[in-house]
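pipeline stage [seq->struct] | target=FAD/FMN-containing dehydrogenase | organism=marine gamma proteobacterium HTCC2143 | residues=541
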Amino acid sequence: MILSTTGIKRWNDWGTEGSDYRMELSDDLRDLLTRLVGPGRALPEATLQQIVARVPPSRLPEHPLIERDAETRVRHARGQSLPDWLAMHSGELGVFPDGVARPASREQVVELLRFAADTNITVIPYGGGTSVAGHINPLADNRPVLTVSLTKMNKLLALDKLSQIATFGAGTAGPAIEAQLQAEGYTLGHYPQSWELSTLGGWVAARSSGQQSLRYGRIEQMFAGGNMETLAGQLEIPPIPASSAGPDLREMVLGSEGRLGIITEVKVRVTKIPEQESFHVCFFPSWQQGLDAVRELAQERVQLSMLRLSNALETESLLNMSGSEHLSALNHLLESQGLGDGKVMMTWGLTGSLRQCEFAGELTRQCNSRYGGVAAPDALGDNWAHGRFRAPYLREPLGRLGYLADTMETAINWDQVTDSMERIETAIRNALVDESEQVHAYTHLSHVYGQGCSIYTTYLFRCADDYPKTFDYWQKLKHAGASAIVACGGTISHQHGVGYDHRNYLPAEKGEIGIAALRSLCSFFDPDERLNPGKLLPDGK
């Protein structure tokens, strides 16, 4: 899977100027939004030139590897969270990095870390700039801030076809990974929704999960070893297939979010390009029937590459977004099979050899049938595959109309899934009651395991009359959703990482001793807290 991603990366929005996924909203969707949350309230948008004019002089001393011009600093100042979008569109960023370095080798990363230590500088590692949790944002600091972008370290360095281990520079983005591997007959198969822009080092640092993790595994299953440059020296992790020799050092690097060092080289487990791949859609009469089918498929370990289940409200929302002419024909088909209000949609993928796909497909269809499932036309699965990275592109056209969309996600055991989903949705839906604002929230299960699954909730709401009040809306929504997740016993993040936005919810999962242990680890590698401070760990000592 290699898409066209040519063009310049947009400075204040998702994607590139030449992306296949740029879009406008249909009249049907505009009418639907008005009915759901009210008329939109578009806010004025700052230009790049206006923001560049507000960038203060750099506090960094000159260095041949560091760029200090204002526009480069703006383009590396924020990620892709909703607060980042609000900051970039309002022009009120507050804090900028003082410079950006783009090292092309491990030696240059070492040089930059040494320079930072010698001159008392804070360092923020930067991959594709796709963080949705505040990982790469500079915070107010008396020390100058240097953002280190790994985007020049973007090559396949080695491929051991016998052991199926590929070595990449940590700044290699998803399309470049697949292009270089597929030219050799291999694939990594890691497709997070940020795949077009996010990088291999970022996936490791934030413990990413791809859309087809049911076949290929999460990034922790793919991550075989590599190198991380730290202020204490180089940490090299050999790609051993398995070991009982004490704690696994890979686990220190996974999810470290730049607090321990800068990942420069990543060794990953790859597989041969599959013979066949297809995606399919099935509808169930009710949430419980769909949930039972998905759980059975996961626990029986049917060899699917992906499996997700949309609840009734998400199913209705997605179908309405597809256009009235398609919706009418599909509803007629489903109603003829006894499926009406309350129906839910399951999307599933087959990837592998022809024989594997045939066998897994038959097992899946038999399971679906037992729970009242009705197969949808093949076009729905094809449409999902074509638009699988489209969702982030909705934010900009929504914003132009005065609407905003964001997500909350967690993972929890099967026995608590339905109750947790309902509590999270309800908390988000009610978060702006005191503002007399409606919030439209819906959910799908994005990844499944034998033990449980992830819960991924999307919510839409109107902008307020200005940017500060809109940010206040977001804070209420985020806190409501995160508090509900913590109260349910779910993880604060299944796939988006911790960063700045989730850090104060982390103690509920890790506990007092766990947080203390993580602080000790960070202190060993970075006693002066100059590596991405203020991220991952909660406030306080």
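stage status: PASS
auto-comment: The chain has 19 helices and 18 strands. The mean pLDDT is 95.
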